């Protein structure tokens, strides 16, 4: 009785045999047990078939003595392409010379001629089960040990010196060049990693799609020496683009290094790499002074406060005036979210907004803000602008709520404006087009916020049916002292006005900045030079 033979019914094999009669007999039997078969008459033909159909082939059965290229030569070349492919050798020679060479190049099993088909099928099923287990610990693309293997290895030692290496914004590479080219980038990155970090001194893992790990085999290696090696690798990656076909692809990486004798090195490496990315540092060594643990505790505290605050009404809108730049008369107000603590302390969004987004609590904010906006519009007859993110626009549930509120207040909707956050990546413009079209039906005005930050796209302004552009505060702050900022702001203002958009300058904090903005001709201005954000009761 052959056990586990059912595992063969869905596999594709490559069978290489030069002896025609044996090949036909064996192939006819294999057809009854396997899904698909590629057949070669010699090693060269077998190698070519493997190159053309690697993604399909699950297992190889090959003779040793064949013309043009023998079986062992073929195996050696195939193992360079995919070291994990299971291979069974069929040979009439039982001498140790062939068997030792076969084992040396990675053959799993062998069967002697004349072939006992029952034995061959048993070996095939055993080999596949072994590789199925082995694949649990090997990354399919790079053939590096994977996260499962890392966990297993970390159980064996509490003392570790680790570098976690993350390719920044790797999803953008897939979006720009396609997933096939993205995979080629990962393969070349993996090869470079293995060249820089000698496998006799370091263990290398691929733990996530764009995240790799390097562990020193010598815990006593000086951390600064390890840092220097990582820094050389980081410099090389960022100075030399990866070439895929005719494409030059620039990579940026972030590296977090941690050393621990209490089994926490991996956890610390995860924390420090997140901290490094937040601080825009390309490489950092974990240090208790970073207060990362305190940061996590603060996050947890705020997640709880946000949840309770939504239910208990702790979130309120404060309204900052936006004035006509020429006359300084208030034209409208921007609704800005604030958290009102139980003791009356007003907390700015910089403290909790990112946490709300990461914890998937952000949709509650736009719901609160649109109701707060209509409260000011209806009761005090003011024009109000509300920020809206692409995440809000792309959410069917959020937009259903927004449309419902507007429909219930449609007689006031012409005084409601939306500022689409330009600094957040927009992945589907059709959703934005639909949103703008729907809002225009209610006579709401639409603008783009934060223009000049992020990946500013002038073509986007032309294609969107917007009414105004808000110039990012990073370009306004200190504009009176920066010729470059003056040129950029003037360019944005002239471009916008040619296409019929009004412009808004935010972060106008003093008279010198105001005078520069006024001289350029920006339509509206906002900032502490005119007024701070005001509570509902402070607006007359």
UniProtKB/TrEMBL annotation:
For this UniProt record, the keywords arranged alphabetically read as follows:
Phosphoprotein
Concerning Gene3D superfamilies, the annotation shows:
3.30.70.270, 3.40.50.2300, EAL domain
Q: Which residues does the UniProt record annotate as the domain Response regulatory?
A: 12-128
| Matches recorded under SMART domains | EAL, GGDEF, REC
Pfam name, any one: GGDEF
Superkingdom of origin: Bacteria
| Positions of post-translational 4-aspartylphosphate modification | 63
Q: State the PROSITE patterns in the record.
A: EAL, GGDEF, RESPONSE_REGULATORY
Residue span, GGDEF domain: 158-298
Q: Which GO terms describe its biological process?
A: phosphorelay signal transduction system
Q: Which GO terms describe its molecular function?
A: cyclic-guanylate-specific phosphodiesterase activity
InterPro entries per the UniProt record, alphabetical: CheY-like_superfamily, Cyclic-di-GMP_PDE-like, EAL_dom, EAL_sf, GGDEF_dom, Nucleotide_cyclase, Rev_trsase/Diguanyl_cyclase, Sig_transdc_resp-reg_receiver
EAL domain: residues covered:
299-540
Q: What is this protein called?
A: Diguanylate cyclase
């Amino acid at each position: 009785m052959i056990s586990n033979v059912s595992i063969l019914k869905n596999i594709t094999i490559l069978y290489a045999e030069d002896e025609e009669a044996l090949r036909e007999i064996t192939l006819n039997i294999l057809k009854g047990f396997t899904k698909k078969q590629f057949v070669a008459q010699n090693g060269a033909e077998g190698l070519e078939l493997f190159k053309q159909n690697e993604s399909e082939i699950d297992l190889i059965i090959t003779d040793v003595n064949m013309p043009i290229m023998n079986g062992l030569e073929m195996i050696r070349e195939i193992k360079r392409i995919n070291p994990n492919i299971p291979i069974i050798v069929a040979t009439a020679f039982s001498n140790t010379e062939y068997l030792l060479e076969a084992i040396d190049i990675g053959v799993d099993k062998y069967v002697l001629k004349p072939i006992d088909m029952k034995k061959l099928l048993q070996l095939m099923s055993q080999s596949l089960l072994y590789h199925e287990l082995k694949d649990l610990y090997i990354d399919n693309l790079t053939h590096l040990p994977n996260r499962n293997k890392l966990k297993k290895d970390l159980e064996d030692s509490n003392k570790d010196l680790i570098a976690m290496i993350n390719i920044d914004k790797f999803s953008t590479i897939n979006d720009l060049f396609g997933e096939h080219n993205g995979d080629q980038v990962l393969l070349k990155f993996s090869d470079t990693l293995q060249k820089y970090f000698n496998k006799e001194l370091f263990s290398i893992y691929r733990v996530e799609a764009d995240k790799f790990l390097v562990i020193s085999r010598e815990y006593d290696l000086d951390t600064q020496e390890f840092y220097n090696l990582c820094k050389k690798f980081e410099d090389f990656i960022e100075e030399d683009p990866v070439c895929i076909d005719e494409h030059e692809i620039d990579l940026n990486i972030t590296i977090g290094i941690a050393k621990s004798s209490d089994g926490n090195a991996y956890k610390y490496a995860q924390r420090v790499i997140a901290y490094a990315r937040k601080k825009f540092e390309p490489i950092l060594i974990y240090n208790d002074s970073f207060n990362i643990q305190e940061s996590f505790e603060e996050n947890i505290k705020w997640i709880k406060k946000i949840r309770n605050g939504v239910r208990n009404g702790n979130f309120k809108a404060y309204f900052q005036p936006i004035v006509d730049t020429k006359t300084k008369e208030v034209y409208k107000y921007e609704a800005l979210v604030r958290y009102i603590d139980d003791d009356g302390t007003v907390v700015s969004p910089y403290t909790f907004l990112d946490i709300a987004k990461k914890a998937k609590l952000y949709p509650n904010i736009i719901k609160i803000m649109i109701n707060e906006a209509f409260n000011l519009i209806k009761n005090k007859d003011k024009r109000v602008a509300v920020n809206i993110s692409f995440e809000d626009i792309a959410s069917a549930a959020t937009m259903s709520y927004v449309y419902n509120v507007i429909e219930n207040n449609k007689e006031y909707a012409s005084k409601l404006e939306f500022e689409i956050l330009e600094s957040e990546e927009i992945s589907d413009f059709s959703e934005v087009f639909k949103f703008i079209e729907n809002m225009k039906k209610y006579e709401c005005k639409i603008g783009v916020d934060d223009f000049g930050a992020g990946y500013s796209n002038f073509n986007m302004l032309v294609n969107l049916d917007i009414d105004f552009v808000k110039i990012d505060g990073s370009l306004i702050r200190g504009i009176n002292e920066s010729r470059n900022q003056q040129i950029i702001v003037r360019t944005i203002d002239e471009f916008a006005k040619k296409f019929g958009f009004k412009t808004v300058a935010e972060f106008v904090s003093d008279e010198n900045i105001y005078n520069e903005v006024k001289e350029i001709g920006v339509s509206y201005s906002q900032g502490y030079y005119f007024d701070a954000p005001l509570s509902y009761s402070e607006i007359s």
